[in-house]
């Protein structure tokens, strides 16, 4: 294209010297030519190859000289052909009409219905079905403007640019020939065999084959239109198919939506990442994840979140909140049904989960969202109401359809603690422990615990006074069995089964010391328990430890009576006197 407009300058310089006639009527120029220029350069002469006729016809072309009939000129490897060429000598202005074609030495070609060039301003216009082709690229529009000084070309009549399998549609475009930058504005669309791009302003660098997006822009996958990328500021490498997003951006893939301050996505590998206020939403799983940094793996259908991450499983009645140092979410093919996928959530290091009827802490957490199975490892602890459960490992089973917890399985050093009476502040706790424990829920409350292997229990026994109808404490039962079944009901724990080497001793409150009412590894943890969902973000909520009243009055009184009786007996004994 550059040679084309240089050619017109040289053409006017040569022919003005050859044509004696002075036209009196000036050319009517487009306003595009009105801008003044300081240049006076005329350029080298060009060579006329052929013209059927040449002259001036009164009344034709405002009495200006013209060539007509298969006009052909040549200059430095560039060839111009047209039906007619007109010269406005006083204005240093030239116009080519009919089947205009410019063949340049660099292989570029411009065809149009007509062309104009002003030798003073060094600006040109090609009109009517303009087609510019150069190696690998074709530009089509109705009117193409060119400024030789700035080496820019532009159109505002709507047009298309086809390159490397991409077709770009735009209302207007400005082409910086020196840097090979095309600035598209006004309802821009890029059509690719694999995707489409729609935006309001796209700048394409043809040297690097990258596009810069300014304003709302959407990249849509043709095979799966629900997979799309949206941004209001970003860049796209069309070779590597990598996109960098900087403002109000989102990546939609596999039914999920990734947002963040800065996003990156590779359409070939399916890898993406986000920095700053990253959120990954999964409407199908009714879950979203947030963090300071996140990664997605489209082909593996997995994601990872770090930097104070947390996840929320949205349930109709009672949502679940997760946190850890690192959270993973992924899907796997169902072993039983290859047509279905199962969803999983994993949280590593300092994992937390809050639900109104159960709260957990562990070093790591794995949750099968589809089947409702949660695995807790690394000093796990779970709270439900006024009950606490610990062990080496804990498995929690949820009813995903009805959205409540069904049961717990505790493996290794299983220990369940329940406040004997949550309405008072006495240090009375029912305790059940053993190697393995299954805990069953009823209406989201712990109902039954089955312990297998070295089962032990410390339970408080109450009875109702027939006269006063008040509940009175009878004593404490110490049980050791191979297996124990304990029923949790109405703030009480009742041993309903004690088998295999069963042994149970019941002590009145006056005959059991405080030390015997607690197992050695007893640890009722009120400091670390999660009371609200926001506690998941803390290593420990650090609540003030609850202080309970010692319930040793009867035992101390009994001991005092025993001690007093012993003292009296000792006083009755004769005392030895040394002589």
TrEMBL record:
Any single Gene Ontology cellular-component annotation: cell outer membrane
Cross-referenced InterPro entries: LptD, OstA-like_N
Stored PANTHER family: LPS-ASSEMBLY PROTEIN, LPS-ASSEMBLY PROTEIN LPTD
Domain Organic solvent tolerance-like N-terminal: 44-198
Annotated signal sequence range: 1-17
Lineage: Bacteria, Pseudomonadati, Bacteroidota, Flavobacteriia, Flavobacteriales
Species this chain originates from: Kaistella chaponensis
Keywords of the record: Cell outer membrane, Membrane, Signal
Protein name, UniProt field: OstA-like protein
Keyword Membrane tagged: yes
């Amino acid at each position: 294209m550059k040679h084309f407009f240089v050619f017109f300058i040289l053409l006017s310089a040569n022919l003005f010297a050859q044509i004696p006639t002075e036209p009196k009527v000036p050319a009517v120029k487009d306003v595009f030519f009105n801008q003044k220029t300081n240049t006076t350069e005329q350029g080298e002469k060009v060579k006329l190859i052929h013209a059927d006729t040449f002259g001036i016809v009164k009344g034709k072309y405002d009495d200006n000289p013209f060539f007509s009939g298969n006009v052909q000129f040549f200059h430095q490897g560039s060839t111009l052909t047209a039906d007619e060429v007109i010269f406005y000598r006083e204005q240093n202005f030239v116009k080519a009409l009919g089947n205009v074609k410019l063949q340049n030495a660099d292989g570029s070609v411009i065809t149009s219905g007509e062309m104009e060039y002003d030798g003073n301003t060094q600006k040109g216009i090609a009109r009517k079905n303009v087609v510019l082709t150069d190696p690998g690229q074709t530009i089509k529009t109705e009117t193409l403007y060119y400024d030789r000084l700035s080496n820019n070309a532009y159109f505002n009549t709507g047009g298309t640019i086809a390159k490397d399998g991409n077709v770009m549609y735009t209302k207007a475009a400005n082409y910086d020939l020196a840097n090979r930058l095309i600035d598209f504005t006004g309802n821009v669309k890029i059509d690719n065999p694999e995707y489409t791009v729609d935006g309001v302003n796209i700048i394409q660098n043809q040297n690097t084959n990258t596009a810069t997006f300014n304003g709302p822009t959407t990249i849509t996958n043709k095979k799966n239109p629900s997979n799309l990328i949206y941004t209001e500021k970003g860049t796209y490498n069309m070779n590597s198919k990598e996109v960098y997003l900087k403002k109000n951006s989102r990546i939609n893939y596999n039914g999920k939506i990734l947002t963040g301050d800065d996003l990156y996505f590779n359409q070939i590998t399916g890898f993406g990442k986000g920095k700053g206020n990253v959120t990954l939403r999964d409407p199908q799983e009714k879950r979203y994840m947030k963090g300071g940094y996140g990664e997605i793996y489209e082909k593996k259908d997995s994601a990872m979140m770090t930097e104070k991450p947390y996840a929320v499983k949205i349930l109709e009645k009672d949502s679940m909140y997760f946190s850890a140092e690192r959270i993973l979410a992924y899907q796997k093919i169902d072993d039983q049904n290859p047509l279905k996928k199962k969803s999983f959530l994993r949280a590593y290091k300092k994992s937390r989960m809050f639900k109104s009827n159960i709260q957990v802490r562990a070093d790591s957490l794995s949750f099968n969202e589809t089947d409702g199975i949660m695995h807790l490892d690394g000093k796990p602890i779970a709270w439900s109401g006024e009950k606490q459960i610990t062990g080496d490992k804990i498995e929690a089973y949820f009813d995903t359809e009805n959205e409540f917890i069904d049961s717990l399985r505790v493996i290794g050093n299983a220990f369940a603690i329940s406040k004997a009476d949550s309405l008072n502040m006495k240090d009375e706790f029912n305790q059940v422990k053993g190697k393995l424990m299954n805990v069953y829920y009823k209406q989201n409350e712990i109902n039954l615990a089955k312990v297998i292997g070295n089962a032990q229990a410390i339970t408080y026994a109450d009875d109702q006074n027939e006269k006063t109808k008040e509940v009175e404490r009878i004593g404490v039962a110490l049980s050791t069995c191979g297996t124990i079944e304990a029923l949790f009901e109405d703030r009480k724990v009742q041993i309903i089964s004690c088998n295999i080497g069963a042994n149970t001793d019941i002590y009145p409150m006056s005959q059991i010391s405080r030390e015997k009412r607690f197992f050695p590894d007893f640890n009722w943890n009120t400091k670390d328990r999660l009371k609200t969902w926001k506690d998941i973000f803390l290593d420990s909520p650090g609540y003030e430890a609850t202080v309970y009243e010692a319930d040793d009055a009867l035992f101390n009184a009994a001991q005092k009576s025993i001690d007093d009786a012993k003292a009296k007996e000792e006083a009755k004994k004769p005392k030895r006197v040394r002589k």
